[in-house]
Amino acid sequence: MTPPKEIVYQGFLPYRVFKGSEVDKKSHLKYRPLEFISLASYPPTVIKWAEAEKMSVVKELYQLQETDLEIESSEQALAQIASQLGESQAVVRTRTELKLKQQHLEELGQQQHSAEWEIEDLVNKLTTAEEKLYSGRIKDPKELTNLQHEVNGLRARRNQLEDKALEVMDQVELSTAGVATLSNELKTVEAEWHSQQQQLSTNMEQLKTTLPDLRHKQQLLSVKIDPQTIELYQELKKRKGRAVVKVEQGICCGCRISLPTTELQRARGDSLVQCSSCGRILFLP
Ligand SMILES: [Zn+2]
Question: Is residue 31 one of the residues assigned to a domain?
């Protein structure tokens, strides 16, 4: 299958395809021959970029470095987002705490109910006993005394239970307020978590959109630059972090050394010049 001529060009590199009239036949020799590069598979932003003016090898390297760095930071950001997506510690903690408080409130409610039933039961017993005591039906003094004791005992027990019920009621009130506060807290924490998750998802989508473009750009630049230069770049990158550095006011931004005039002059041309002090590739924007 022969690809469309305006898109691919056998043996040469993308921008030369587009800038066909400017092709320098001799310069091709130093580039790695490629079977085909089909720009059709690249996104429009990358094609536009590839169509742009011819760059010096140092500028290409600098762009490759910028692209590599952008890819690295995007990948790091993606990994960080991935670790932040999902259940939040704060939400889980608040939910657990609320569940415990709700259980406690339920228990208190049960205590309150059983105290109330017990009181009701006692009051019934007491009413019957008091009725019997004051009815005048019982004449035997011993039996009356015993009955009086029973009534007294029941009264004391009732008072005791009523005190306990009041205590439980206070606790129920406190616990209800606590549950309400914590429920609101959970709502706030969940809302915060939800909006944070949404923001993270948006950021993730953005990164996932820009990353393929960056990788395409990286790929295009890597094939445009000759393999030996790429090797030098990779080796410097590994050793120094940044392989290509800008020269500002005659100073190498990699090691802050003032560069000799001859070195500056050579760097001003199209050739690849390494700093005599730190070895980094010098880029004069
Ligand atoms: Zn330097």
Answer: no
